[in-house]
Amino acid sequence: MAFTAVLALLAGARLAVSQNSSFPTSTAAANATQTSSGTGSLTTTFELSVDDFWDIYVGPVSTFSINTTVEPTAIPSSSLIPPPSLYYPPFPGGQQVPLQTKNESWQFPKDFWYGVAGAAYQIEGAVKAEGRGPSIWDVLTHRVTNYIVTNDTGDVADNNYYQYKEDIARIAALGIKTYSFSISWSRILPFGSGTVNEAALAHYDDLIDTCHQYGVTPMATLYHWDLPLYLQNTYGGWLSDSIVADFTEYARIVFNRYHSKVHYWFTINEPIVFCGFYPLPQNYFKATTIPDVEQPYWCGHHALLAHSSAYRLGKSINSSLSISFKTNGGYKIPRTDSSADADAVQRAWAFNEAWFADPVFLTGDYPSLLKDFVSGFLPDFTSEQIAQINGSGDIFAHDAYTSDFVMAPDSGIAACVANSSNELYPGCYNTTKLYAGDYWAIGPAGDPGTPWLNKATDWVPVFLKYIQDTWKPRGGIAVSEFGISEPYEELRTSLPSILIDPLRSQYYVDYMQAILIALSEGVNVVGTLAWSIYDNLEWTSGYSVKFGIQYVNLTTQERYFKASAFEYVNIIEKYLEK
Ligand code: NOJ
């Protein structure tokens, strides 16, 4: 199978694809225009296949020896024995299991779902297999010097593209009943739109069917940051409103194919984060004239339109689907009781969760503190767009890893808002992990590679209550990602030292207990997804930062359960309504 597209070479921007079109034959032509520095243009025509596209923009990629779908190997029963209890009294001798207490007033409702999550580029590998087109992350990892601190790529990752049956069998063996994965857009549509790649659709068919075979509920995310490269190079990706139609078309193909066997859908993952990747590094993608400071908000605008359009489409295909977008962030604790810090907290909500949650759950439009800024350059949503966006979320799916103290900038909020060169502009709030006094942190720190992440589980009940009271999601709240990078895990070289992950274990126990507290206070939490099913490519941190409840030996691609996997399952089983 071959896919082709139109390529143009733009002076000053090195290579950028100028127009999106695709051809159903293997011999289609492509127009390329090279503009010489302002003195005229030279046009030529040539053919561009998916392979050409890879060669020009990414170059050679690595592969792994297991390169066809494999049946699961038997899971050794010894690896399913839970780890010894964490605490041992010194006397009397021998392993002691302390009395397990249970708070009888806590309970997870019977239909509470608990699972694990991963995302295509972070786990699949097999990046060129069966017609996948490149995404922006193939360029970021292969071509942009120092973008990934470790020079890692997703070429092989966890080889999930071929080992997914084993991966699903393993979580089922643990007793985990839900698996959240993302679909790679550029597998389904190698150039982002146009010709559909049936091999990719068949792959996800089998992945979904395998979930059902093991009694695992599949949950699918349409977009977890791996934007088809062609769309970035053609029109600037999320910076252009052209993305709305292309995303909707992609959603149509996927919903049509899987709606009868996947009930839970997430459209876009963490728009605050992926829109924050703009501006992308210069000279690798299509150049843009949009000022840097505006780019995340143009992206967010189109993300809201794309999400809501896909939501309405999905519901028209199958009204029973649960469709939501995933947002992210932590509780925002005023660092002092000053009114300036209280104002800073309001700004922090407005420029984070409320940026997407107010439009979807409350008003169809931005919160006023954000609108004061974006109305200077973004078009107003039309009344049709407001109607489309408003109500386009069935559950409030939140990736809630940690929390922060929030305070006003040293120069004051007003001075910051008036000064676009202030480093905190346009949000004009500041954050810290330290309590006032600058001595104690909010909780134990994760790995130094994730300075944004401390264990702050004490703040989870109030955070969940805040979400419920503020956005009143009709389908409740899902903690759609949570987890912690065990500090210095990458320095551990022996398997037994890797497999006992005490901070992550405690994090899951305390976090689930915090959810139980919230539930007992009437907060409607419907499910959790631990990040992650196993260690994977942590984006710009490469493989150096570990979030897995399983360890993966990247040389052999063998998987091993860590202690946290058992702690997560145990605390749920202990409190799950029978
Ligand atoms: C959220 C993102 O969705 C995921 O891709 C990432 O690996 C985790 N956070 C951990 O940083």
TrEMBL record:
Sample GO molecular function, one term: beta-glucosidase activity
Biological processes annotated in GO: carbohydrate metabolic process
Keywords tagged on the record: Glycosidase, Hydrolase, Signal
Highest taxon listed in the record's lineage: Eukaryota
Gene3D superfamilies xrefs: Glycosidases
Key word Signal present: yes
Signal peptide residues on this chain, from the entry's feature table: 1-18
Similarity comment: family membership: Belongs to the glycosyl hydrolase 1 family.
Record protein name field: Glycoside hydrolase family 1 protein
Species of provenance: Lophiostoma macrostomum CBS 122681
